[in-house]
Amino acid sequence: MSIALSSRVSLPALAVVAAGLVGCSEQMPGQASAGDTATRGPGSSTPAAPSESNPGGDVLAEFDYCSLLDDGELSDLGLVAGELLDADVTNRPNCTWKTKRAAGGYDITVFYIDNMGIDEVNNADAEPVLTTVGEHQAVKFQSWGGGNSAIALKISDSSRVEIVATGSGGGETQDALAEQYAKLFEQKLPKGDG
């Protein structure tokens, strides 16, 4: 598989930087702000509807990614409610969850890329490894000096959903977290063709 490399800043790096800048609120668990005044709780999702930025009504572009984990799952996984990363930073539909503990914690970020497939991962430290997650072809890789582990699920030849694990000491533990959440999220993503 040929992977396009680029010197430009990539989305996972921006997501990681933005995740560090965006704090999670434990005061309003289950609520995430969509960048306007509307809030949605876990389990809710935004229906696909045509909009100025999404004229075709792409269900994955309009999906509320913070709804992927409900209150029970958040509790079981030890995570605080997900928050959207600043759209001005990533310009992608997304969500980030953080562990409730400060030491040894981790972040999980998921985001949708509607203009690059899994063969166009441009921020991997080494050649991404082909794999399968549920019903999706995927690639797994580490990026930015092993700073995070990621799995990109193929939605179409020109779109993907990435799940990125950051923290938790890196290495195999971080890889296992990326795989765990990729399997969980893959089952819950709406069917879309990117």
Walk me through the topology.
Layout: H1 11-21, E1 32-33, E2 39-40, H2 59-62, H3 71-77, H4 87-90, E3 94-98, E4 106-113, E5 129-133, E6 136-143, E7 148-156, E8 159-167, H5 171-188
Antiparallel strand pairs: 1-2, 3-4, 4-8, 5-6, 6-7, 7-8
Biased composition (Polar residues): 29-54
Region (Disordered): 29-56
InterPro entries: DUF3558
Description of the molecule:
Residues 29-56 are annotated as: Disordered. InterPro entries: DUF3558. Residues 29-54 have a biased composition (Polar residues). It holds the Pfam family DUF3558. With 194 residues, this protein is α+β, with helices and mostly antiparallel strands. It has one domain. 23% of the residues lie in helices and 25% in strands. Strands 3-4-8-7-6-5 form a 6-stranded antiparallel β-sheet. Strands 1-2 form a two-stranded antiparallel ribbon. The chain is globular and about 40 Å long. The model is unreliable at 1-54 (pLDDT under 50).
Radius of gyration over C-alpha positions, nearest whole angstrom? 15 Å
What share of the residues lie within helices? 10-25%
- Note the gap between the termini: 21 Å
Biggest sheet layout: 6 strands, antiparallel
Which residues sit in consecutive blocks of at least 5 with pLDDT less than 50? 1-54
Please give the order of strands in the largest beta sheet: 3-4-8-7-6-5
Bin the strand percentage.
Answer: 15-25%
In DSSP terms (H or I, runs of 4 or more residues), the helix count works out at 5
Count the E strands: 8
- What is the H/E string? HEEHHHEEEEEEH
Biased composition (Polar residues): 29-54
Region (Disordered): 29-56
Pfam families: DUF3558
